[in-house]
Amino acid sequence: MTEMSEEAVEVAREIHRRWAAGESTAGLIAEDLEYVNPPYAVESGTRVGRRSLGRIREVYPDFRFEPERFVDAGEDVVVIGTSTGTSASGVVATMHPGYIWTIRGGKAVRFRWFNDPGEALRAAGVE
Fold it and tell me: Who's near 7: CB < 8 A, 6+ residues apart?
């Protein structure tokens, strides 16, 4: 791991730690963050702005993500874990996604999610 990639992993870890603790991540996520949904998402494409990360709570108000693994991929960090949430209709969803955070200058500037952790690893160039 290079010094830069170690910093990127630590930023990603801190984002997830703060989310779990209910703390602000504003200092760690760029205001103009690119939020990229995969082509198969209900709302595919790119959104801009760190507030776009909170849109998941419109569908799953109690959404929670438990990171299990952080993978160094240079300025990208792949985070694999388990997410859970209950929809307004009471349906409980459990998923095992992979996220890719792109970190520059100590802040997350891009967030991509994938339903399959393997897909996230491949997209980040990690096998």
Answer: 103, 106
Report the distance separating Cα 55 and Cα 47, nearest Å. Answer: 11
CATH no. of 3-123: 3.10.450.50
Kindly write down the DSSP assignment for every residue of 50-101, as one continuous string. GGGGGGHHHH-TT-EEEEEEEEEETTEEEEEEEEEEE-TTS-EEEE--EEEE
Contact 34, 48 (CB under 8 A): yes
Note whether 32 and 108 are within 8 A (CB): no
Query: How far are the Cα atoms of 87, 104, 123 from residue 61, in angstroms, in the given order?
Result: 7, 30, 29
User: Residues 26, 50: contact at Cβ < 8 Å?
Assistant: yes
pLDDT tens column, 4-52: 578 999 999 999 999 999 899 999 999 999 999 888 877 788 899 988 8
For 94-105, the pLDDT digits (tens) are 999 999 999 999
Q: What is the pLDDT of residue 115?
A: 92
Domain ranges of the chain: 3-123
Closest CA to 68 of 27, 99, 37, 111: 99
